[in-house]
Amino acid sequence: MTSLLLLALAAAPLAADRALPPVVGDVTFKAGRFELEPLAAFSLRDAYYRKYVVGLEAAWHFTDWLSLGGFGGYAITRAAGAVHLCDEAGCAAATAEQLQGLTPGSLGFLAGAEVQLAPFYGKVSFLAETFGNFDFHLRAGVALVGYGAGSLSLAPGAKAGLGARYFLTHWLALRLDLDDVIYPERLPISGVPATVVRNQLFLQVGIAFFIGGGSS
């Protein structure tokens, strides 16, 4: 009886190993690869306008945790609807055209370069059946901002953010990023030109393609 019990206990780990295979596999495979990401973004906490950006990001990954890249995007600006203009006839929601030159925040395009660090990565389980690779990253860089309407004005700026990738395959990933773009904007206040520092948040989603090297 004792011998049978010892045999059962010895076999239990082997059965468990067969039922639940260990989580193995390389979760870091960006080194030496080019990343290309079509993207869409929209502004957050925007008092006067809503900005919708479509664009492209590209980056070269020197290692699995360090990359250098550039970004560019075209912005579509719409009035937020929270601002009303009033006259003797009453008040009505202002259009983007009516707000031009009166309020900051109208955007034409964004471009720049950035450094990205991805120190955190791992695997996530779905129903204990499949495991997907992910990483969390931080990024910072410089930006060139075109603002205003008609003839755009240019301003240097800075960009910082954080985000995550979820890898569907070794060459395809979903991305979600939260970015802060800071830049100076000049506009007349009471008829006198003044500079306003803009601090604009964007939520960005995209699909990243990894080219070259790595596993297919």
- The number of domains: 1
Supply the helix-strand structural class: mainly beta
CATH topology grouping: Porin
Order of helices and strands: HEEEEEHEEEEE
Reading side by side through the largest sheet, how are the strands ordered? 1-2-3-6-7-8-9-10
- Poorly predicted regions are 4-12, 14-20
Shape: elongated
How many DSSP E strands?
A: 10
Distance between the termini: 53 Å
CATH architecture: Beta Barrel
Instruction: Report the total helices.
Output: 2
Strand content range = over 45%
Supply the CATH class: Mainly Beta
Radius of gyration, in Å, reads 25 Å
Helix content: 10-25%
**pLDDT average, as an integer?**
82
Biggest beta-sheet profile: 8 strands, antiparallel, barrel
Name the descriptors.
single chain, 2 helices, two-stranded antiparallel sheet, mainly beta, 216 residues, eight-stranded antiparallel barrel, Porin
What does this structure look like?
The chain has 216 residues and is mainly beta. It has a single domain (38-211), classed as Beta Barrel (Porin), CATH 2.40.160.20. Helices cover 10% and strands 64% of the residues. The strands form two sheets. The chain has an eight-stranded antiparallel β-barrel with strand order 1-2-3-6-7-8-9-10. It has a two-stranded antiparallel sheet with strand order 4-5. The longest helix has 18 residues, at 2-19. The chain is elongated.
